[in-house]
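SUBJECT: protein chain
CONTENTS: sequence, structure tokens:
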Amino acid sequence: MGRNLPAPRLACGAAWAIVSGALVFAAAFRLHFEHGRWLLAFSGLVSLIWGFLPLLWSLVGALVLAWWTGAYALVFDVTLLILAFRLKRQRDHASPAGAMSHA
């Protein structure tokens, strides 16, 4: 009974990835295209995919889940780091010389 269902912690992690991925993907369309909209949309899509994978293949072993989690973290975080540096560069170019910008 319940052998095909994912463990509760895995289901919570998958649900978190699906919800956060959908929100990040939606937020991407509020970002200007030149600022890296595609990077934010890509990170949301990666989060959505990672959220559905454990739910679809809930019988995989712990080692496979660890690899999936590591790959997800690597791709998601590298994408957001690239976006952060692009936005910082965009902010630095937009502010006048010598002016302090307030976040």
About this structure: The helical segments are 8-28, 37-56, 62-94. Residues 37 and 51 are 21 Å apart (CA to CA). The chain has one domain: 8-94.
